[in-house]
Amino acid sequence: MTAERRKALIYLTITLIVGIFIGSLVPALFGHMRRDGWKERGKMEQKGERRPDRRAGFEKMIYKITKPDSSQIGQIRPILQETSTKIEALEKGSNKRMTSIMDSMKLKLQPVLTSEQMKNLEDFSQRNRSKRRGF
Q1: Is 53 a residue whose pLDDT tops 70?
Q2: Confidence of residue 43 (pLDDT cuts 50, 70, 90)
Q3: What DSSP element (H or E) covers 4?
Q4: 20 to 30 A from 111, CA-CA: which of 7, 39, 77, 131?
Q5: Residues 6+ apart with CB under 8 A from 73
Q6: Is residue 41 situated within a structural domain?
Q7: Taking residues 12-20, what's their average pLDDT?
Q8: In terms of Cα–Cα distance, which of 63, 85, 89 is closest to 76?
Q9: DSSP reduced 3-state for 110
Q10: Which SS3 state, helix, strand or coil, does residue 113 take?
């Protein structure tokens, strides 16, 4: 084997090892970021807080779509804030109605399902109820 081939083989091997290393770290890093984000969201839900970026994200999306100039932003901001407030109120009301409908369903299912099945349904319902509160 010539020196050039040996050198090329070493570079290929090093590239392969670095690629495997990076390939294993990146998903782990994103997994940690995602998991930490869910933990933070869960803490906020326990405190009764909403995600702080919700309104800002809505405004940012509208600004990105419309591309307003500086004079328009001052006129648009109150409209977007009013709209965000209305959307949040609508979501709260909708979530309350959904909860009452689900509770009614559980009462109707109680005579049909076993206690283990009801426990599973209740656990599932609690998990989803906490997710709805975050939005």
Answers
A1: no
A2: low
A3: helix 3-46
A4: 131
A5: 63
A6: yes
A7: 93
A8: 63
A9: coil
A10: coil
Q: State the SS3 of 36-94.
A: HHHHHHHHHHHCCCCCCHHHHHHHHHHHHHHCCCHHHHHHHHHHHHHHHHHHHHHHHHH
Cα separation, 69 vs 53, in Å, equals: 23
Query: Is 47's pLDDT higher than 60?
Result: no
Range of the domain at 15: 1-49
Percent above pLDDT 90 for the chain: 21
Bigger pLDDT: 130 or 117? Answer: 117
Residue 100 three-state SS: helix
Q: How many domains does the chain have?
A: 1
Position 13 in a domain: yes
- φ, ψ of residue 49 in degrees (nearest 5): -90, 160
Residue 118: CB atoms within 10 Å: 14
Q: Beta-carbon neighbour count of residue 21 at 10 Å?
A: 10
